[in-house]
Amino acid sequence: MKKILLTSIAAFAVIISGCSTKSTTVESDSSVDSKPGSGSSDTFESIDSKINRLNDTLNKVYFDFDKFNIRSDMQSVIQDNANIFNTEVSGVSITVEGNCDEWGTDEYNQALGLKRAKAVKEALVSQGVNADRISIKSYGETNPVCTEKTKACDAQNRRAEFKLAK
């Protein structure tokens, strides 16, 4: 009987020691946000919202009066936009829209706007943007951003703008 009792006590001791609870501490990392969809905006931003955001923020290329060559101070705008087109939205179509001030005939300004858009397209292609992605369009003088009769206002209208689309 002592043997059974000792065996039972030994078995009970093994069971008790095997069932001891381990203390585990789980620390939360406050730098990680556990809410779904709370990652960085680039990670979860849809292509449509990225296109909308970029269409509102892409820099414009400005031109001198009666000119369509890219000014030296606008080269960085071309480089910055080309970088965006080649990395952030590499599969998206780009339209370059040429615009003019009100000076000159409608026909002349339409042609000048087209030359401005073409010059910008060529500059983007030289920065590695695929030419097949880029279309050009001229608004001539029909799309002013400023209508005051001042030189500063006219300068704002001599521009090329960018529109992205899927």
TrEMBL record:
<keyword id="KW-0472">Membrane</keyword>
<keyword id="KW-0732">Signal</keyword>
<comment type="similarity">
    <text>Belongs to the Pal lipoprotein family.</text>
</comment>
<keyword id="KW-0449">Lipoprotein</keyword>
<dbReference type="GO" id="GO:0051301">
    <property type="term" value="P:cell division"/>
</dbReference>
<keyword id="KW-0132">Cell division</keyword>
<protein>
    <recommendedName>
        <fullName>Peptidoglycan-associated lipoprotein</fullName>
    </recommendedName>
</protein>
<dbReference type="Pfam" id="PF00691">
    <property type="entry name" value="OmpA"/>
</dbReference>
<keyword id="KW-0998">Cell outer membrane</keyword>
<dbReference type="InterPro" id="IPR014169">
    <property type="entry name" value="Pal_lipo_C"/>
</dbReference>
<feature type="compositionally biased region" description="Low complexity">
    <location>
        <begin position="24"/>
        <end position="42"/>
    </location>
</feature>
<feature type="region of interest" description="Disordered">
    <location>
        <begin position="24"/>
        <end position="45"/>
    </location>
</feature>
<keyword id="KW-0131">Cell cycle</keyword>
<dbReference type="InterPro" id="IPR050330">
    <property type="entry name" value="Bact_OuterMem_StrucFunc"/>
</dbReference>
<dbReference type="InterPro" id="IPR036737">
    <property type="entry name" value="OmpA-like_sf"/>
</dbReference>
<dbReference type="GO" id="GO:0009279">
    <property type="term" value="C:cell outer membrane"/>
</dbReference>
<dbReference type="InterPro" id="IPR039001">
    <property type="entry name" value="Pal"/>
</dbReference>
<dbReference type="InterPro" id="IPR006665">
    <property type="entry name" value="OmpA-like"/>
</dbReference>
<feature type="domain" description="OmpA-like">
    <location>
        <begin position="50"/>
        <end position="166"/>
    </location>
</feature>
<dbReference type="InterPro" id="IPR006664">
    <property type="entry name" value="OMP_bac"/>
</dbReference>
<keyword id="KW-0564">Palmitate</keyword>
